[in-house]
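Reopening this ticket.

The earlier resolution said the output was attached, but the attachment link was broken on my side. Pasting everything inline this time so it's all in one place.
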Amino acid sequence: MTPPVTPLAAPGFVEVADRVFVARYRQWDVGVGLVLGRDGAVVVDTRASDVQGGEVLEDIRRLGRDIEVRHVVNTHVHFDHTFGNVAFDTATVHAHDTVARTLEVHAEHIRAAVREDPGAAPEYGYTEADLLQVLATAVRLPDCTFGSSATIDLGDRAVTMAYAGRGHTDGDVAVLVADAGALFLGDLVEESAHPSLGDDSWPLQWADTLTSHLIAAGDPSVVVPGHGRPVDVAFVERQRDEMATVAAVLRERRLGGVSLAEALHEPDARLPYPLEHLEAATRRVWAQLPAS
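Inline output:
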């Protein structure tokens, strides 16, 4: 779960680059992308349930165009980006190899968490009804997976999917629409909250992964985060640098002999995010690095 989100703009899809649209949804403040081409459309991420995925399709229809969604891309494994896959029954779902291997396990983990605490959380935008929909949704695995990169041909343009290393999860991918200068980065970047460093994140590698994606994308004019409003490259670079600082400080403390208990409770002024937000990241670094 990410920290509380900022207020949403008007609902529905908004064009942010040539035939590239983004819709931002209240529940978990998730962003969904839509890329149009001569030979159909690509949807980037599908929200947290079959019902929410169906709402995405309705919003696409409201654009007033004859749009056929032929492809879906999941930027990573998390339920708020994948559980809506089942609503796109005629589309091919694409994702990184690790998503196919871990989605069912992740789904069971999320369902167990929801059963343990089924209450609403207005600060995250979801209700008890939303959580019941999560529980009721069947998991649809990707149809096509890849290791490093793959391309979707829309006839008059290409949509490129690329894996550059671990970060928010072990299977984050970037989605590039090069002719429009648009880059989707999933939860490798968040605008409405600090990056979500969960118990499946890779804090020591995150910044390098972002750097690789920025280099490969050239100089995109718009970057779409997993949560929040579209941003520019400068925003991504600032957040990348913050993540590099997190990695450097935690690595220094781990290799310097600081105990896990001390690291979890003793502040460090260099850290760009609150210490309580970095608990999972700290535990991950202590598990991933041997003590000096």
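Reporter confirms the inline version is readable. Residues 30 and 120 are 17 Å apart (CA to CA). The chain has one domain: 14-288.
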